[in-house]
Design a protein that fits this description.
Blueprint lengths: L16 H11 L6 E5 L5 H7 L4 E6 L2 H13 L6 E5 L12 E4 L5 H10 L4 E6 L2 H13 L3 E7 L2 E6 L2 E6 L3 E6 L3 E2 L5 E2 L17
Bound molecules: S-adenosylmethionine.
The site of S-adenosylmethionine has 22 residues, from helix 2 and strand 2.
Length: 206
């Protein structure tokens, strides 16, 4: 993964590099995609998404954090394809997104309503709090958006007395799914082989 420089003074974020790697794998962004991020904060995800997707819309409710996103896009020589919106989703969400990531959880149910109504193909949400993870999993399921829940925890090794010990980060709950296209018979179908774990070549969604 290419290096991302991220000076920031925001209390939240940035999404950690290893978590971004899994996230970007699940989103599988392509040059034809319009990607939307809810809660861009430091811009860590926005910068990497801008290198992959054709178009990015980044929403952030806090003006100082949106400014941080702007600065970090510039610091990473990215952003020509990024539109920044100071907005609290679902306000300001575009209707033509292919992929959407919720890094911020405010109003997430309304954001998921939007994703379902506008048939957004890939939807991923990261959650760190247990109770929110449970409620959000249910909210994905109720809207028929859920494909998988991934939980993982990253630990970094450090040298201790000539051996290796580990510093652990908080666990991350990653909710992965999206709205399939509506088939001619009115039923849902996957848009391609990556849409369903049972159909994927490697047994995974992406
Ligand atoms: C955990 S941080 C996201 C970190 C970000 N992915 C990064 O790498 O820097 C959550 C951010 O989402 C923003 N946020 C939360 N809910 C939001 C909403 N509904 N619309 C826009 N921004 C939101 C918060 O202000 C905060 O900056």
């Amino acid at each position: 993964m290419a290096h991302v420089s991220l000076p920031h003074d925001a209390k939240a974020g940035p999404t950690k590099p290893e978590v971004r790697a899994v996230l970007l794998g699940k989103l599988a962004l392509e040059p034809t995609d319009h990607f939307v991020e809810v809660g861009s904060c430091t811009g860590a995800v926005t910068v990497e998404a801008a290198r992959r997707a054709g178009r990015v819309t980044a929403l952030e409710r806090k003006p100082n954090r949106l400014e941080t996103t702007r600065k970090n896009l510039a610091a990473n020589d990215a952003g020509g394809n990024v539109e920044l919106r100071e907005s609290e989703a679902p306000e300001g969400l575009p209707t033509d997104a292919d992929a959407l990531f919720l890094g911020g959880s405010r109003n997430y149910e309304a954001v998921l309503d939007h994703a379902a109504a506008h048939r957004i193909d890939r939807v991923v949400m990261n959650v760190s709090r247990l109770e929110v993870a449970g409620a959000a999993t249910e909210a994905f399921r109720e809207r028929d958006l859920l494909e998988e829940v991934v939980q993982f925890q990253v630990s970094h090794g450090y040298e201790l007395a000539g051996a290796t010990s580990f510093d652990s980060q908080n666990p991350v709950y990653m909710l992965v799914g999206g709205a399939g296209e509506v088939a001619a018979d009115g039923g849902e179908r996957p848009t391609d082989s990556r849409r369903s774990p049972s159909r994927g070549v490697d047994g995974g969604r992406r």
